[in-house]
């Protein structure tokens, strides 16, 4: 399959989200399992302030909220924002906002940033700027988690492996931890020098 070189427009994502669950986040075991993997790898039980880029209909947002005192979720699509707000309206500490990154950016810094299934939609230049800004938005000891589908598809000018290679290149470091199977890759950067076992006095 040939990957197209033009990035999707905002209208593309509005059309996609006309279906309330366009990617099967609520219906597919693949998606439920991926969320569980992401949550299981987080190095802390709770994060004071977190940000999720590209929240879609809010399924991952809802799951992350259980581990975050304050969680900002953003998406380019107004329809996605409406769906995510409906999904999380009963959850404390969650805010969902419409933003186009990297041209629009939240204020402050974050202990956790999750960039899931977003990077391959960006041009190389936009991805570069986004990663640089994400690095600046991380609090000292903060964690940046990236998770992406590995296979090319129509609508994405690059694939997940390219996105993760670009993150590592710009950050100038190898991931703190990583998971990969035949379909997606999950990697994280940051989190401090000590491992979880060291922090809990196991070694």
Overview of this protein structure:
By secondary structure, this protein is an alpha/beta fold. It has one domain: 3-Layer(aba) Sandwich (Rossmann fold), CATH 3.40.50. The chain is 33% helix and 25% strand. It is built from seven helices and seven strands. The chain has helices at residues 10-16, 29-41, 59-65, 78-88, 124-137, 160-171, 196-199, and strands at 47-53, 68-75, 94-98, 110-116, 138-149, 177-180, 184-190. A seven-stranded mixed beta sheet has the order 3-2-1-4-5-7-6, sandwiched between helices. Strand 6 (177-180) and strand 7 (184-190) form a beta hairpin. The radius of gyration is 16 Å and the shape is globular.
Query: Could you describe the largest sheet, including whether it forms a barrel?
Result: 7 strands, mixed
Spatial gap, N to C terminus: 48 Å
How much of the residues is beta strand, in percent? 15-25%
CATH superfamily, called what? Vaccinia Virus protein VP39
SSE string = HHEHEHEEHEHEEH
Instruction: Give a count of the beta strands, DSSP E runs of length 2 or more.
Output: 7
Helix/strand-derived category reads alpha/beta
Radius of gyration: 16 Å
Main-sheet strand order equals 3-2-1-4-5-7-6
Query: What overall form do the CA principal axes indicate?
Result: globular
Specify the CATH class: Alpha Beta
How many domains?
Answer: 1
**Which fold name corresponds to the CATH topology?**
Rossmann fold
Mean of all residue-level pLDDT scores: 93
Count of alpha and pi helical runs: 7
Helix content percent band: 25-40%
Give the second-level CATH assignment, the architecture: 3-Layer(aba) Sandwich
């Amino acid at each position: 399959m040939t990957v197209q070189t033009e990035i999707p427009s905002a209208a593309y994502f509005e059309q996609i989200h006309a279906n309330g669950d366009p990617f099967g986040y609520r219906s597919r075991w693949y998606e439920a399992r991926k969320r569980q993997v992401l949550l299981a790898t987080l190095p802390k039980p709770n994060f004071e302030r977190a940000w999720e880029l590209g929240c879609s209909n809010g399924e991952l947002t809802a799951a992350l909220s259980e581990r975050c005192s304050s969680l900002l979720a953003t998406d380019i699509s107004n329809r996605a924002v409406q769906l995510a707000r409906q999904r999380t309206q009963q959850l404390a500490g969650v805010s969902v906002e419409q933003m186009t990154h990297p041209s629009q950016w939240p204020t402050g810094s974050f202990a956790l940033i999750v960039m899931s299934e977003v990077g391959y939609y960006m041009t190389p230049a936009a991805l570069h700027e986004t990663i640089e800004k994400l690095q600046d938005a991380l609090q000292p000891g903060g964690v940046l988690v990236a998770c992406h589908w590995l296979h090319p598809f129509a609508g994405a000018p690059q694939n997940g492996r390219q996105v993760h290679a670009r993150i590592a290149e710009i950050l100038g470091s190898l991931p703190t931890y990583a998971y990969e199977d035949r379909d997606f890759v999950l990697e994280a950067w940051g989190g401090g020098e000590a491992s979880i076992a060291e922090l809990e006095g196991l070694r």
